Structure formats: C-alpha cells, structure tokens
Amino acid sequence: VQLQASGGGLVQAGGSLRLSCVASGGTISNYIMGWFRQAPGKEHEFVARINWSGGGRLYYADYADSVKGRFTCSTNNAENSVYLQMNRLKPEDTAKYYCAARSPGRAMSDYWGQGTQVTVSS
User: How confident is the model at residue 104 (pLDDT cuts 50, 70, 90)?
Assistant: First the structure.
C-alpha cells in the first residue's frame, strides 16, 4: 500500500488547512487509517484515527486531546482517501504530518506516507 499525503503549508494561527491522504495498492476500509505528526526534536505523536464498522461503510474517528474539537478526520471511500481538516490552528501544531495504515490486530502501522509539512505562524 502506498500513501500519498498532501495539503500542508504555511498558515497563520487561527487559520485552517485540509490534509489529504490518497491510498493505492490497497483499500482504506481494510485498514485503520491514522494521522500522526512529528515536530523537530519531538517524538512521533498520534493525532487522529479512523475506525471502521458496518463492513467498512461506516466509521468513527478518535483524536488526541490536543486536537479534539479543532481537527476532523473523514474519508471518501470512492477516492480511497482520508482527510484531516484542521481548524483554529496553533503554533504548537507545527509539525510534519503523516498518514498511516494499520492492519486490524496489529500494534503498529504497516504503511506510512511521506509526510506533509504544516507550519503555523504566531
């Protein structure tokens, strides 16, 4: 599975960005799709995750406390894509954002995208 993330950029605090992750070579509803981020000098951090139900037709998302209420994770199965809508961005959201795919039952993600940089200026 290849994951291509895009949509990062430079934005002022309080602004919004929408990240996209397109998957190829696999169907996203077969994986738990996640967003992670890594800021310089910091460890990888979980941001959001899509969990599937209803045979892949329904999903629910969960979020890190630091982004809850500001970020929204969604999918488009027809486009085999997941999205991360980021609103009310803060300088501390500055990081490289990665999408990842994890097979159910596995502890770690199996596939990672190349990352897209998000920079929030104060």
Answer: confident
Tens-place pLDDT, residues 83-102: 999 999 999 999 999 999 99
pLDDT at 28: 93
Q: What amino acid occupies position 104? A: P
Enter the tokens of residue 89.
């961005």
**For residue 73, which amino acid is it?**
C
Hey, what long-range contacts does 110-113 have (CB within 8 A, 24 or more apart)? Answer: 110/1, 110/31, 111/1, 111/2, 111/3, 111/26, 111/31, 112/3, 113/3, 113/4, 113/5, 113/21
Is 55's pLDDT higher than 80?
no
Euclidean distance between CA atoms 3 and 88, whole angstroms: 26
Who's near 57: CB < 8 A, 6+ residues apart? 29, 77
d(C-alpha 47, C-alpha 98), whole Å: 9
